[in-house]
Specification:
365 residues; mainly alpha; DNA-binding; HTH-type_TetR-like_transc_reg; transcription cis-regulatory region binding; HTH_TetR; TetR family transcriptional regulator
Length: 365
């Protein structure tokens, strides 16, 4: 076709429809000479590119949008009411708590090792932090002093004990609840016998640590006293001889809480002196039995303290001479004198009661 002219009249206009009018050729006979405007040709439209949002490809089964939503809702597992899904924030909080607890343990271990090797007075906070691989300011994020580093678990244990008291069944005897609470403290020591024995030996040598231990113990005693007072206030029946809101409630609460803590300390120290050997929980259970029969078995006039009553004149048969002396002391005349007896904190309970019996015999003879 090169060098040959197109047929007269150019290409048929029907082959180039633009607006329904024939298009004049731009060359050869009949070419446009300016009388007609140059034809405007529309730009080609690119083909549509199919995406996932446009639906499934041809030939596949299509589900309407509403049906797909309903289908996904039906396939989702049902979640029990009140149960929230685990979130990254919750997992992060748990990791942070675990890391914080681990850091407290690392600092406490470093402090114990330094105290044992170079002495308590010679050890500084900077040395403890360096041994644990942290900065001085990091140490003070976890402990206020080097004395606190010896007792890293008591804060968490105190929280656990408080939760136990708060969740206890009101039908359970309040003294039994307190005994369960102090067992949490004992288990804290028993979980790491080696560390507990080393700490006990160190505390016996350093007066500042003994004072710190006394302060820690008093926190449990106050917690138990508040719990017992709350149970007494909520009691519907008050045995004869007791006055609601009087001195009897506060006296029994304080004495019972102090007795439980003292029994725990006595059993714990005996176990630590033995090198952390033996069934320490069984020993503590025995001391609880002594406390129940001493403080909660029988009051004057045969009234059972804070529980069911015993007919006047009835007696509770004690299971040991120690309990017999305790019941006898409780049955004494309310007008008697106050007796103060001094004894060692690590003395056996039987020896303490013997001293009290001897003192009572001497004062009345």
């Amino acid at each position: 076709m090169t060098g040959q002219a197109p047929p007269p009249g150019g290409l048929p206009g029907s082959q180039h429809p633009v607006g329904g009018r024939p298009v004049r050729p731009a060359w050869g006979p009949g070419a446009v000479t300016g009388r007609w405007p140059r034809p405007v040709v529309a730009a080609p439209v690119p083909p549509l590119r199919r995406t996932k949002a446009a639906g499934p490809p041809p030939g596949t089964c299509s589900v309407p949008a509403m049906d797909r939503e309903q289908s996904s809702e039906q396939s989702a597992p049902e979640r029990p009411e009140g149960v929230r899904p685990a979130t990254e924030a919750g997992a992060g909080n748990r990791r942070a708590a675990a890391q914080r607890q681990q850091m407290r343990q690392d600092l406490a271990s470093a402090a114990m090792e330094l105290f044992a090797t170079q002495g308590y007075e010679e050890t500084t906070v900077d040395q403890i932090a360096a041994a644990a691989g942290v900065a001085r300011r990091t140490f003070f994020r976890y402990f206020r002093s080097k004395e606190e580093a010896i007792f890293p678990d008591h804060d968490d244990t105190l929280v656990r004990v408080a939760d136990l008291l708060a969740s206890a069944d009101t039908e359970e005897h309040p003294l039994d609840v307190v005994c369960r609470g102090i067992k949490e403290v004992l288990r804290m020591y028993a979980s790491t016998p080696g560390v507990s024995v080393a700490r006990y030996q160190l505390i016996r040598q350093v007066g500042a640590l003994r004072e710190r231990e006394i302060a820690v113990v008093s926190r449990y005693e106050r917690l138990f006293t508040r719990y017992l007072l709350g149970r007494f206030d909520a009691a519907e029946e008050i045995p004869p001889g007791w006055q609601r809101g009087g001195d009897d409630d506060s006296m029994l609460a304080e004495v019972s809480a102090a007795a439980v803590v003292a029994a725990h300390n006595h059993v714990l120290r005996r176990w630590l002196r033995a090198g952390g050997l033996g069934d320490v929980e069984a020993q503590l259970d025995h001391s609880f039995d002594v406390i129940r029969n001493t403080f909660w078995a029988t009051a004057p006039n045969g009234v059972r303290r804070r529980g069911t009553t015993v007919a006047p004149g009835a007696t509770v048969t004690p299971v040991s001479s120690m309990e017999a002396a305790a019941v006898s002391a409780l049955s004494a005349s309310p007008g008697g004198e106050v007796l103060i007896t001094v004894t060692r904190t690590d003395a056996p309970l039987e020896q303490v009661v013997d001293r009290i019996r001897a003192a009572l015999s001497g004062s009345t003879g």
